[in-house]
């Protein structure tokens, strides 16, 4: 039986990363397309996964044997704080429809995408896969976080009651081509890239909110894509895996801004607005479980990944999500 892999959210940042890897890695290699595989990258225009009937029709059309479930209502801090109920309901509906339709149609394996937002606000660091349910998530995104946590709960319940092979991945902050550069809703890297681009274009200063000191782990969407493909082919356990660079590869927001200035070739005035709040200083997650299972894996150096992302943005400014 040929494998049909349905990627929900296939037109977003992470989905485009997977499509790129499948189309660009050598056929038959560890991360490349394998003979007999068909990959489907679905968007919301093909089926609104909040709707059970549209979800069923999508599954009837492609008859997937495997699902990488990325589709979600995603957003930065501002949107998460303002629309908590929408984030909770939309993501609950999407996840329930995808998991239940996968169960009903006999999908062999589902990998759903969580986020490090699922972890408790008050927790000991580094974050690891055993700490998801040990306390309440941060108040700013509790709608999104609770909906994502429930996927892990559902995966266990589907396994216990029906023996389903459903699991999940927990990426840290993702960036890359096809990111969301909308200044209102974007995550930190795409927001700063867009701001720096506008500062260069308009001859205005590039001002970064906060001190630049907080540290974060960023993963390039094309590296993350390979890790999803690995998990699809080589990992069969219900427990999630954190997909991230190591704790020793944290970068500061200043490092990020410096790399963007370089990639955009911005030569104007550049400063930090220290009157703006910084957020948490660090929230490191360990990738020990991933590395112990995958063996050798080479992450793209941060500056190279950022250069590629910025070049993509500059070349696609007219069609990018701005
Ligand atoms: P994007 O916003 O770039 O893409 C979201 C994708 O989901 C799009 O393909 C979109 O389709 C689809 N989608 C949204 N709503 C629906 C719906 N109602 N029905 C069907 N499809 C829908 O998100 P990312 O690629 O960044 O995120 C992918 C996954 O990774 C998500 O589950 C997210 O929670 C997770 N994640 C992301 C992180 C990040 O830093 N970006 C960090 C950690 C986890 P369309 O293009 O048609 O709108």
From TrEMBL:
Enzyme Commission no: 1.1.1.271
GO biological processes:
'de novo' GDP-L-fucose biosynthetic process
Q: Which residues form the NAD-dependent epimerase/dehydratase domain?
A: 5-246
> Does the keyword Cell wall biogenesis/degradation feature in the UniProt annotation?
no
Top enzyme class of this protein? oxidoreductase
User: What are the coiled-coil residue ranges?
Assistant: none
The molecular function terms in GO held by this entry are: GDP-L-fucose synthase activity; isomerase activity
Specify the pathway.
Nucleotide-sugar biosynthesis; GDP-L-fucose biosynthesis via de novo pathway; GDP-L-fucose from GDP-alpha-D-mannose: step 2/2
InterPro entries membership:
Epimerase_deHydtase, GDP_fucose/colitose_synth, NAD(P)-bd_dom_sf
Alphabetically list the UniProt keywords: Isomerase, NADP, Oxidoreductase
Key word NADP present in the record?
Answer: yes
Stated family: Belongs to the NAD(P)-dependent epimerase/dehydratase family. Fucose synthase subfamily.
Name the UniProt record assigns to this protein:
GDP-L-fucose synthase
* Organism the protein comes from: Phanerochaete carnosa (strain HHB-10118-sp)
């Amino acid at each position: 039986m040929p494998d049909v892999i349905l990627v929900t959210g296939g037109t977003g940042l992470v989905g485009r990363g997977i499509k790129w890897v499948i189309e660009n890695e050598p056929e038959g290699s560890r991360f490349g397309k394998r003979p007999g595989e068909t990959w489907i990258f679905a968007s919301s225009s093909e089926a609104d996964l909040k709707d059970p009937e549209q979800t069923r029709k999508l599954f009837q059309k492609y008859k997937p044997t495997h699902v990488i479930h990325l589709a979600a209502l995603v957003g930065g801090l501002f949107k998460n704080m303002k629309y908590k109920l929408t984030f909770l309901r939309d993501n609950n509906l999407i996840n329930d429809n995808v998991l239940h339709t996968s169960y009903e149609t006999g999908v062999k394996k589902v990998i759903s995408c969580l986020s490090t937002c699922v972890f408790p606000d008050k927790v000991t660091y580094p974050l690891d896969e055993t700490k998801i349910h040990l306390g309440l998530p941060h108040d700013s995104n509790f709608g999104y976080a609770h909906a994502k946590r429930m996927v892990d709960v559902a995966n266990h319940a589907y396994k216990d009651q029906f023996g389903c092979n459903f699991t999940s991945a927990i990426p840290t902050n993702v960036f890359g081509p096809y990111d969301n550069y909308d200044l209102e809703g974007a995550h930190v890297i795409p927001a700063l890239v867009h701001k720096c681009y506008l500062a260069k274009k308009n001859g205005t200063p590039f001002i970064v909110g906060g001190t630049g000191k907080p540290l974060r782990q960023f993963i390039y969407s094309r590296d993350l894509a390979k890790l999803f493909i690995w998990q699809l082919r080589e990992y069969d356990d219900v427990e999630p895996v954190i997909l991230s660079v190591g704790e020793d590869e944290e970068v500061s927001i200043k490092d990020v801004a410096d790399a963007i200035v370089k990639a955009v070739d911005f030569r104007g005035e550049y400063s930090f607005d220290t009157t703006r709040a910084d957020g948490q200083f660090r929230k490191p997650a360990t990738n020990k479980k991933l590395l112990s299972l995958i063996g050798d894996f080479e992450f793209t150096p941060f500056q190279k990944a950022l250069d590629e992302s910025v070049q993509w943005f500059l070349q696609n400014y007219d069609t990018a999500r701005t």
